[in-house]
Amino acid sequence: LSSIQQACRARMRRTPRCSTVPENLKMRINHIVANTEPRHADEPPPSAIFPVAKRTIGLPSKQGATDDGQHVTDGSSFYFVIGPCMCYFVEVLKSDHAAQPGELRVKTVSFGTVNLTRFKASVASYEQRFVMTFRSPFGRETRLDLASVHYRRIIEVLTKIDRELKPMWPQQFQQMIFDIKGLPAPLQLTSGNDLGGIQKSLQAYCTAFNVHMPSWTIDWHVSRHPAFRLLPSQDTAYSAMQLMAVCRALRYNSFFKAISFRDVDLTALTGKVDHSDSVVYASLNGKILPWYPT
Predict the structure, then answer these.
(1) Angle at alpha carbon of residue 193, lines to 190 and 194, rounded to 5°
(2) Mean pLDDT over all residues of the chain?
(3) H or E segment to which residue 209 belongs
(4) What is the pLDDT of residues 90-99, one digit of tens each?
(5) Rounded-to-integer distance, Cα 132 and Cα 143, Å
(6) 270/8: higher pLDDT
(7) Residue 136's Cα: distance from chain center in Å?
(8) Where does residue 117 fall: left (phi above 0), alpha (psi -120 to 50 degrees), or beta otherwise?
(9) For the CA atoms of the chain, what is the radius of gyration?
(10) What CA–CA distance (Å, rounded) separates 257 from 276?
(11) What is the pLDDT of residue 146?
């Protein structure tokens, strides 16, 4: 397998491909991303599209299986897409290559990039596989076990996007998510993060949690300024996911010296415990903080 991989790399260096994604599929995926991601301008948000293979672990073999079983999965192809705030696992069912983008039979599952809790891979292995785990607050864990010849590029793009959406997170906490053997911890530098990147982070969490952006402002007329102030909702009370989005976007944001939830109804969080999030119990320097359930 190592010899085959080296031969493939040598061939790709001699005759590199211009694109591995058909143009009609690229248009369809860009349309999906544009309808999911927040709109910052009239132009569609940029996205990176990678062909992948879906790995199935522990699949039982059928007795007396024939070639007929291969035709069931022969027509599907899979792609992993990284957008500004979301990741997408796209399955394209068998169709004609000349089909219009709207005629393609596509199944899409989206995941918030900020919901990524684990990315495990090894650049020293010839398998070119990687495992991703996503989990939203109070939700169940979703695991993707994939493989791709573009896995190094996927690692590069995903670590950069994760850093941009959480610019104030300490580097060691990002390394807790990205467990990549054979690759030194990447130094991801960020720039232009006004207000500690709160606008970009809060938008990313709201998009990942599928909720509207709450209203907020900055109070400069307090003793400990600048202070982040969550404004009360004008109609219905904020949902638990909206409040969680605010809290997670503020995590490790040292720009603000105070936080105010004055006149905000927090009853949506009553009795809610997110046991999956262990990072919240660590301080900025990595010290584990004691906590006591109430």
Answers:
(1) 165
(2) 82
(3) helix 198-209
(4) 998 876 666 6
(5) 6
(6) 270
(7) 11
(8) alpha
(9) 22
(10) 28
(11) 95
- Gap between the Cα atoms of 54 and 147, Å rounded: 7
3-state SS class at 72: helix
CB-CB neighbours of 114 under 10 Å:
24
Nearest to 170 by CA among 279, 267, 16, 46: 279
Side-chain-side CA neighbours of residue 24 (13 Å)? 13
Tokens of 237: 């009370």
**Cα dist from 259 to 71, 124, 218, 228, 247, whole Å:** 58, 45, 9, 5, 10
Share of the chain above pLDDT 90, in %: 40
Tokens found for residue 12? 């790709």
Rounded to whole angstroms, what are the CA distances from 122 to 119, 131, 184?
Answer: 10, 10, 11
Count CB neighbours of 47 within 10 A: 20
Interval 197-255: pLDDT, tens: 899 999 999 999 999 999 999 999 888 889 999 999 988 999 999 999 999 999 888 89
Task: List for the chain the helix, strand, coil content (%; round to 5).
Answer: 30, 20, 45
Q: Which residue has the higher pLDDT, 2 or 225?
A: 225
Cα 132 from Cα 118, distance rounded (Å)? 6
- The residue count of the chain comes to 294
